[in-house]
Design a protein that fits this description.
Helices cover 37% and strands 20% of the residues. It is built from ten helices and twelve strands. It has helices spanning 36-54, 88-96, 105-116, 165-170, 182-186, 188-199, 205-213, 217-241, 258-266, 288-294, and strands at 2-7, 11-17, 23-30, 59-64, 67-68, 75-76, 100-104, 124-130, 134-140, 143-144, 245-249, 279-281. It has a five-stranded mixed sheet. A five-stranded mixed sheet has the order 10-9-8-11-12, with helices on both faces. A two-stranded antiparallel ribbon has the order 5-6. A hairpin with a 6-residue loop joins strand 5 and strand 6. Helix 6 (188-199) packs antiparallel against helix 8 (217-241) and helix 7 (205-213) crosses helix 8 (217-241). The radius of gyration is 20 Å and the shape is globular.
Length: 304
């Protein structure tokens, strides 16, 4: 049995899979986001509870909103800030009496879709979650590309490529300390911020999409700017790693027109005579993170 944990800012979800990837059990609890010790205890409690109920022991993988620093072995870059500076993998291993594998939640998303989702069978997979933020990961031949600093595939904190003069001037500040990061442009939040800059009105991204589809000229212009920016960002990914498929999750993945509008918008920026990279919606949706955490153990043998 494989057990996956999705540690989010508001909830902790656990999923148990059998060796064929079939769901055995799913549970979730609220995240005690301001108490590190309570987070460790909650995860350990979920694991032991599920194992007791099923009468099986399992491997444990955890998707986190951040990553382990290879320099210190401590959590960094986590938007659940109470995790920062703690050896979460070691603390969970001590609580459960076994090795626990940790991975960035966007990497877990990409792995889930590569194993048995929208990109099943593909060699090189780029997974992009565009919702409140813009997280991403790369999976090659079924393995997460982690990188030397464990930031492999970090799409959202690169600058918007081929910016217009207005985009240089208007580049929004990012929480990372830079300006004009892709996340500030192509997340659902960034899309809504663009419309607000144009109109002065705070309107959620889904409503802007609906207004654009209904013929509202200002909303349509904001949508077209969004498509251009995301297409330029994805073209840069194609130029760098040339993925076999791009899988999209998060709130903006629910905009059907993107899958038709993005490919032609990428063509002028891709260094090739053609661009045929499929852009597809995630199969497992919000469950991809917890499924990918379970698949951090690729074989039934915990030593694999």
């Amino acid at each position: 049995m494989r057990i996956g944990i999705d540690l989010g800012g508001t909830k902790i979800e656990i999923l148990a899979l059998d060796d064929q990837g079939r769901e055995l059990m799913r549970r979730r609890v609220s995240t005690p986001r301001h108490d590190y010790g309570a987070i460790v205890a909650a995860i350990a409690g979920l694991v032991t509870g599920v194992e007791a109920e099923l009468g099986l022991a399992g491997t444990v993988g955890v998707g986190i909103p951040g990553s382990l620093s290879p320099a210190t072995g401590l959590i960094k870059n986590a938007n659940t800030t109470v995790l920062i500076g703690h050896p979460l993998d070691k603390d969970l291993a001590a609580a459960l009496g076994r090795e626990v594998r940790l991975e960035n939640d966007a990497n877990c998303f990409a792995l889930s879709e590569a194993v048995d989702g929208a990109a099943a069978g593909a060699g090189v997979v780029f997974g992009l979650i565009i919702g409140t933020g813009a997280g991403s990961g790369i999976v090659i031949d079924g393995k997460v590309l982690r990188g030397r600093h464990l930031i492999g595939g970090e799409f959202g904190h690169n600058p918007l490529p081929w910016p217009t003069v207005d985009e240089v001037v208007e580049a929004p500040s990012c929480y990372c300390g830079q300006k004009g990061c892709l996340e500030t442009w192509v997340s659902g939040t960034g899309f809504a911020d663009d419309y607000r800059r144009a109109t002065g009105s705070p309107v959620p991204a889904p409503e802007i999409v609906a207004m654009a589809a209904a013929g509202d000229a200002v909303a349509r212009a904001s949508y077209e700017r969004y498509v251009s920016r995301l297409a330029r960002g994805l073209a840069q990914v194609v130029n760098l790693i040339d993925p076999d498929v791009v899988v999209v999750g998060g709130g903006m993945s629910n905009v059907p027109s993107l899958y038709a509008d993005l490919p032609p918008a990428m063509v002028p920026y891709v260094f090739s005579d053609a661009c045929t990279t499929p852009i597809v919606k995630a199969v497992h949706g919000d469950s991809s993170g917890v499924r990918g955490a379970a698949w951090l153990w690729p074989a039934a043998n915990p030593a694999a």
